[in-house]
Design goal:
The protein has one domain (5-157). The chain is an all-alpha fold and 162 residues long. Helix content is 81%, strand content 0%.
């Protein structure tokens, strides 16, 4: 990826390109981390509500899956920072970037699951369960279209099959 001319600018050397790609990834992670950490904190508090203790097994199962997905998402969004810290000054950014990018993509997948679970928990309170599940399924499709489908389509039609 780093030697491919499609990813470089005419005035930058390979080291500058790696730095630019790392900075771009960090900016993306900053955006994703904030919302994910807020969701995670909110989810942690739910378990200690008296009304939650009386909820049925469906709600508890959705909650557990949502909390775990949220924790995995937070972990994957923070992992590139830890990765960078552990290999700092070892001239390994060319190896770190593709792995950190995959971590971010995996974090986004778990974020979709966590958002869907959080929505299901909330919608299950205000809608009949079948309608809540249907609404969340529609929202999951929406996420898949805009987070993965559109980028995949643009990538495929631009001839970039990396």
């Amino acid at each position: 990826m780093t030697d491919d001319p499609r990813y470089s600018r005419p005035d930058e050397d390979p080291g500058e390109r790696l730095d630019r790609h790392w900075i771009e990834l960090l900016q993306e992670l900053r955006l994703a981390q904030t919302g994910t950490q807020i969701l995670f904190a909110f989810l942690l508090g739910i378990a200690f509500q008296a009304r939650f203790q009386d909820a049925g097994s469906f709600v508890h199962t959705v909650y557990a899956a949502t909390l775990i997905a949220s924790a995995l998402s937070v972990g994957l969004f923070v992992a590139p920072v830890s990765f960078h810290r552990l290999i700092y000054r070892r001239q390994l950014r060319h190896r770190m970037l593709p792995i950190a990018s995959r971590m971010a993509i995996a974090g986004l997948i778990f974020l979709i699951v966590a958002v869907a679970g959080g929505l299901l928990l909330a919608l299950d309170v205000v809608l009949p369960r079948g309608m809540a599940v249907f609404a969340v399924a529609c929202i999951l499709i929406w996420f898949m279209i805009f987070w993965y489908g559109v980028p995949a389509y643009i990538r495929r039609t631009s001839g970039d099959e990396e």
